[in-house]
Structure formats: C-alpha cells, structure tokens
C-alpha cells in the first residue's frame, strides 16, 4: 500500500466505533492520480485471505491529520476524583475533582487503557481509606499514576522505568512535582513504601515478585495490573509465594488489577 501511494493509516476497533464488535478496520489514506493503479496494487497484495470483506475505495475531502487525531482524546474521568485532560481542551473541574493535564506521547499511559483506569481507581480508593503515603510507581511510562498519586496527596514519589525515553517523558510530565526518578531493570530500594503500583505485564510482574514484595511497608498496598484476567491466578501465585495476600481483585474488560498486602497485615 505504501508503494501504491498510501501516506497514513488509521486503525479502528470497537473502542472507537461501537459497531465494530469483534472486528478491526484499517483506513488507509493516499493522494492517488490513477485509481486503477491502486486497485492493481491491492489485487497484487493478495489480501483476500486476510480480510473479512473486500477492500473498498472512496474519495474524501482533504483532512489536516496534524489536528484531526485530537478528536479521539477528550477529558476522561478515570475515578471519582481524577480526570485526565488534553492540553488543548478548556476544562472546568468540579469542587473535588483533581485534573491531570496530559497529552498522548511516545510512552504508555494516557488513561485510555483499562489497566491505567484500574490503577487510578485503586489509588483513589486507597487515598480515601488510608492515605497513599510514600508512593512507588514501577514501570512508570508517562508518569500518569504518579501524577494521580500526587493529586491524591502522596507524601513522596519514587518512579522507576527501564526505558530511557519513557523516563524522560515522565520527567517532563512531572516537571514542578517533587519526585525521584530511577532508570533500572529491577526495582531495588532501602526505603519501603506505603503504596506501590506496577502496571506492566504478567510475565515481568511474576519475575519481580520478590523485589516488589520487599518494597512494601507494613500495612502497605501493592497494586498489580497490566495483566489479563486469565493471567491473574498465575500472577497471584507468584506473590503469594513472596509473602503477600490478595484483598481485592478488580476486572475491567479483559484486564485485571490485584490489590495485595503483606500476609500478616490486619487490613481488608
């Protein structure tokens, strides 16, 4: 398609178009002088076995793609008190609402994904039940969870990341917020933390179970996400073996969050 003149494409699924349940559409955009040439390129690509419907061609007015994508990013209420707002939107918050101004970028985490929302909801409840206290964000990405913790009254922030580009994004997003940043593969600290969040993936979570458990202060809370609901039992088992227990499991879509504490802590 690129050889035929395609300059950009858009991937749409049911999160963008509710009519696309169980399907994904690709919209490819090009300035083409010879529609017959494009049709020939499509035929030569032999896509029939990959598609549920034949490709369709249609003419559209020119679009300013530098601005058009922004329509998909509007203010998003992630929890009772936390809302993420893109910088180009004028937004009036209510009395108890805490706003995070955050634009989509090169690192994961703008609130659109279910796992990010699950973590923010857990932080909001943690703040209302027992305070966030000393906060650690393992695999911070954009830093959105640390920003949420800050807005919810965290006493201190420690963010780790193994991707230098993502860590730079987090540092930029947390400019003006007092926080410690560390580029590392495995989270190690002589400090302990009252609230620890690791929104990564199931396999690395299991590999870091002992390290993450060691970060947790007495009566602290550990939030694990980035895992599919079908993976929750395996992840939980790794952390049970590291001396923790599960007090809550939340599910959203196909994803889960495990809320864990030390096995001997008298917390619910």
Task: Give an account of the 3D structure.
The chain is α/β, with parallel strands linked by helices and 268 residues long. The chain has two domains: 6-68, no CATH class; 73-262, Vaccinia Virus protein VP39 (Rossmann fold). It is built from eight helices and twelve strands. It has helices at 35-44, 65-68, 114-129, 144-151, 164-173, 202-207, 209-215, 232-240; strands at 6-12, 25-30, 76-77, 82-85, 98-101, 134-138, 156-161, 180-183, 193-199, 216-228, 244-252, 255-262. The strands form three sheets. Strands 8-7-6-9-10-12-11 form a seven-stranded mixed β-sheet, with helices on both faces. A three-stranded mixed β-sheet has the order 3-4-5. The protein is elongated and about 70 Å long.
**Beta-strand share of residues:** 25-35%
CATH superfamily of the largest domain: Vaccinia Virus protein VP39
Form type: elongated
Regions with little confidence, pLDDT below 50 for 5+ residues: none
| Run of helices and strands | EEHHEEEHEHEHEEHHEHEE
The SS-based structural class is alpha/beta
Report the radius of gyration as a whole number of Å: 22 Å
Mean pLDDT: 89
- The CATH topology of the largest domain: Rossmann fold
> Helical percent range?
25-40%
**Major beta sheet, specifics?**
7 strands, mixed
Number of strands: 12
Query: Termini distance?
Result: 55 Å
CATH architecture of the largest domain: 3-Layer(aba) Sandwich
Top-tier CATH class of the largest domain: Alpha Beta
- Domain module count: 2
Placed side by side, the strands forming the largest sheet appear as 8-7-6-9-10-12-11
Treating each run of at least 4 consecutive H or I residues as one helix, how many helices? Answer: 8
